[in-house]
Amino acid sequence: MKKLHVIGESFIDRYVFMHSNRIDPATKVPVILSNKEKVDTDGGAANLIKHLNFLFKENKYHEIAFYTNEDKIIKERFYIDHNPIYRFDHGDSVKHNKGMVQNLINDLNEGDFLVISNYHKGLITDYEINLLIKEAKNKNITSFIDTNIVNSEYYGADYLKINNKTFLEYEKDYRDDISKYFPNVIVTLGIEGYKYYGYSHILQNGGGHTKYDFIDSIGAGDSFFASFIYNIVCEKNIYDSLKEADNYAAENCKKLGTLSLN
């Protein structure tokens, strides 16, 4: 039995669908009809867990322990005739939970993988992330981190997954080679695929996708990360794991946001 310990901030992704059949002549804005549909689904780390459970559903030899916040930020997205109009966030931070981090450190005595989904919303501090990475290394546990900001507290994690914006910001702020501090760095490039930096080796995959296939990229990073973790846990090599993750995320971009799975 392989055990994954996953920690990260969870949100509620709320979708509000409205319909309009005309434009107001005075203000030139759509006139919204009274009927509308509201749908809530898991976002953030909870979306990652949703994908992991989906991918592992046929695999009886795994267990996932999830550490997350109870008070959830609501990201409310409004659509008119399925076209996005705007987003309204109910809150921008969650409560720091020092006790949860300590429980996780203790629980790592029984585990094979540590997964950190870090949205920088306050659940865990950078210092605590550093403690978790060090504890995982001491216990020979494979560690993954997905983050939108990289600093020296995260150095030493086995797998770092970031997007290209975060990668460029790191280069600008630190003026250093990020691959010196992580054995494996995965940079997602959206429709262009990904770059992989590992042990002085650089691999870029163009992805082979077209923008016409994509409907919505919300949650694409979570789906990529989940598939990558799944394939590594199933002992696939890094190259196949990256390709599977890229294809899985692309398939999820053909659907609306975090509402449905691959």
CATH topology: UDP-N-acetylmuramoyl-L-alanine:D-glutamate ligase
Radius of gyration from the alpha-carbon trace, in angstroms: 19 Å
What is the number of independent domains?
1
Return the average pLDDT rounded to an integer.
Answer: 90
- What portion of the residues fall into strands of 2 or more residues? 25-35%
Total strand segments: 12
What is the CATH level 1 assignment? Alpha Beta
The portion of residues assigned to helices is 25-40%
Low-confidence stretches: none
CATH superfamily: Ribokinase
Summarize the helix and strand pattern as letters: EEEHEEEHEHEEHEEEHH
Strand order of the largest sheet: 4-1-7-8-9-10-11-12
- The CATH architecture comes to 3-Layer(aba) Sandwich
End-to-end distance, in Å? 25 Å
Largest sheet: 8 strands, mixed
- Going by helix content, strand content and strand pairing, the class is alpha/beta
